[in-house]
Design a protein that fits this description.
Blueprint: H1 3-39, H2 44-49, H3 59-66, H4 72-103, H5 108-122, H6 127-139, H7 146-169, H8 174-182, H9 187-216, H10 219-224, H11 232-237, H12 247-267, H13 269-277
């Protein structure tokens, strides 16, 4: 066998192994979600008996969405409000804070201190802050309100927004902004015409991460909400009752709760790819 033939065979073998590993990783990633989706179409008895072949039923989704005792629709709306508003606030504040740190000639020590705080704060378990937040919101009259949860989620995700957006801002050459200022652009026009369009992939990818984290956040939402203001994760947990765990309804609610995140990922995929590869090519 010639050298070129051996090289071709070797490359083909590497390609096959790589594709096999990627397929195996995809199967391992999708298998839990597939199991949940199948469980949502079973009866409680079929699920507990471990039935492999079964007749799909839609009663679990009907009970979750339209049942007399189900509050999932309200929980879903609460999650949409909390995740959307907290994402917008965290992005806005994080963007302006990051721009200030990198463009307003702060001392290097101050910049490093703020970015270090952003990293350290993300290491703190959110549940350790829930008790203090509950006391604060109780004293200011925001107990069990969506406003309290929005403020808490904004606080939780602002450090991540600051860190990520600061990284994206570093990739914008100062010369572009300086040229716009020389041409007479004010701050608002500079943001609207230069900085924000270039930053859009980073803003979108960061916003998607914040939205998903806010949507799935559980311990703080459990501590700060009641039946009227509970979010989707708290609503799903309520299917585990004292005398019975409604596994199939819990699975149906889990499938429904994944729809917003999937839609966001599908429609914003090109921004995510641009955001992840920003700065990779000079």
């Amino acid at each position: 066998m010639s050298v070129s033939a051996r090289r071709f065979t070797s490359r083909r073998a590497v390609t096959i192994i790589l594709h096999g590993a990627l397929i195996a990783a995809a199967v391992l990633t999708l298998a839990p979600f597939l199991w949940i989706a199948l469980a949502s179409l079973k009866t409680q008895i079929a699920l507990l008996m471990g039935t492999v072949t079964f007749k799909p039923v839609a009663m679990n989704y009907a009970e979750v969405l339209f049942g007399n005792t189900s509050t999932f629709s309200r929980n879903f709306l609460n999650s949409v409000i909390v995740a959307s508003v907290s994402t917008v606030i965290a992005l806005s504040v994080g963007f302006l804070a990051g721009y200030s740190l990198l463009r307003m000639r702060w001392p290097r020590a101050v910049v490093n201190l703020f970015l270090l705080w952003a990293v350290v704060f993300n290491l703190v378990p959110p549940v350790t802050l829930a008790g203090a937040w509950y006391e604060v919101f109780r004293h200011v009259g925001l107990t069990n309100s969506l406003t309290a949860l929005i403020l808490a989620h904004t606080t939780l995700h602002l450090p991540m927004a600051l860190w990520l957006l600061s990284s994206f801002l570093r990739e914008i050459p100062n010369e572009l902004e300086e040229a716009a200022v020389v041409d007479g652009a004010g701050f608002v026009r500079l943001m609207r015409r230069i900085v924000v369009p270039i930053m859009m992939p980073g803003l979108v990818s960061t916003g998607i991460l914040i939205f998903i984290f806010s949507w799935n956040e559980f311990p703080v939402a459990l501590a700060l909400t009641n039946n009227q203001s509970a979010t989707v994760p708290v609503g799903i947990a309520k299917f585990a009752q004292e005398n019975e765990i409604k596994y199939t309804q819990m699975a149906a609610a889990s499938v429904l709760s994944a729809i917003p995140a999937l839609l966001v990922l599908i429609f914003c995929q090109r921004f995510i790819v641009k955001g992840l590869t920003a700065g990779a090519v000079k």
